[in-house]
Amino acid sequence: MNNPFRYRLSDGREVETQARRVLEVQADAIVEHLATGGRDATLPGLGKLKLSARITRTGRNPQTGEPVQIPARVVVKFAPAKALTDAINP
């Protein structure tokens, strides 16, 4: 997380270190959950992180134009919550 967010979470009471630790623990828990078989993780008021499978596909090398195989993989997608979308687009 960026410093202004940690500072705001700490509310200026010199507990920025504790706020940073809370955010790190939360992020670690989400990563562990998704890495060990969880299909999604909800962040209340922010949105949902979902795992999505991508299939193998053919792409192009932008420098040479040569076709290259892009391997299948699992990616994380973020779906924003309605509250977040409404706050950004009043």
From TrEMBL:
GO cellular component: cytosol
Name of protein: HU family DNA-binding protein
Alphabetical UniProt keywords: DNA condensation, DNA-binding
GO molecular function, one term: structural constituent of chromatin
Protein purpose: Histone-like DNA-binding protein which is capable of wrapping DNA to stabilize it, and thus to prevent its denaturation under extreme environmental conditions.
Family, per entry: Belongs to the bacterial histone-like protein family.
Tree of life domain: Bacteria
GO biological process: chromosome condensation
Pfam families per record: Bac_DNA_binding
InterPro entries given in the database record: Hist_DNA-bd, IHF-like_DNA-bd_dom_sf
